[in-house]
Amino acid sequence: MPEGRDLCTGYRYYTGAQIARGVSIKTLCDLGFSLSEIDMLLVAKTNHDANTIRELFGRRRQEIRSEVQRLQQIEAILENEDASLELIYMSLNEPLIKDVPPQRIVGKKGTGAYSETICRLMPALCSQIFSEENQRNGLKVTGPFMTLYYDCEYREKDANIECAAPITGRIVLSLPEMEVRTLPGGKCLSLIHKGSYSKLHEAWSRIGAYAEEQNCIPCGLQREVYLTDPDVVREDELLTELQIPIETDAGRPGN
């Protein structure tokens, strides 16, 4: 706000201190600092708090390095004359942290090789959900089908898997190894994979490496959420979301 205003001309008068502050704010904006960070920097300058200034400058330098790397990656992709849209999508799609709400699910568990077990469990799950009795009860599927993984590591032939669907309404279960429960919500590391299910292992490697780099601590069942129907969408257009529930700072020991 100006220090004063001429009532006749409406001209605004700024003090020297206000002009200096305005110049500082504009300079920090040009350097890419957010408004909250600018406020922290100006307070730190007033209080001669060099540690806060160094910390915020260091954080901004790291953000710039990351952005430079991202732009260099884009440049390298665009320089490749043989680059396809699929390659560009997979190269630029990055994991992110998102909030996932709790969901009431029905699931069927099984053990075996991944693809074979999922192909066995999904039809059984669907036959239960879409049985005449449950449809008469008004049972509805409220979101994409998913697969939950109970093992902490890759299992060649004896993976513990659950195929599940979020539901609402009354359900009658007649098949073994089926359960209705609430799947917890919270923070998840998420990555969208586009393409064949046979390439999902590459996406899991990417999101796993990212989690390790960012020191994310897994705290729940890893999930594949099938955003598109393979009976409707071409294999190369399939979208699958990979989710890894992670601990928040508040949930870690010592916080």
Order of helix and strand elements from N to C terminus: EEHHHHEEHHEEEEEHEE
The oligomerization state is: single chain
Question: Roughly how many Å is the radius of gyration?
Answer: 26 Å
For CATH, the homologous superfamily of the largest domain is named as Regulatory factor, effector binding domain
Q: Write down how many β-strands occur, each being a DSSP E stretch of 2 or more residues.
A: 11
What's the pLDDT, averaged over the residues?
Answer: 84
- Per the CATH scheme, the topology name of the largest domain is Multidrug-efflux Transporter 1 Regulator Bmrr, Chain A
List the total number of helices. 7
Number of domains: 3
Main CATH class of the largest domain: Alpha Beta
Rounded to the nearest angstrom, the distance between the terminal CA atoms is 40 Å
Main beta sheet:
9 strands, antiparallel
Based on CA inertia axes, which overall geometry fits? elongated
Pick out the low-confidence regions: 250-255
CATH architecture of the largest domain: Alpha-Beta Barrel
Beta strand %: 15-25%
**How does the helix and strand content classify structurally?**
alpha+beta
- Approximate helicity band: 25-40%
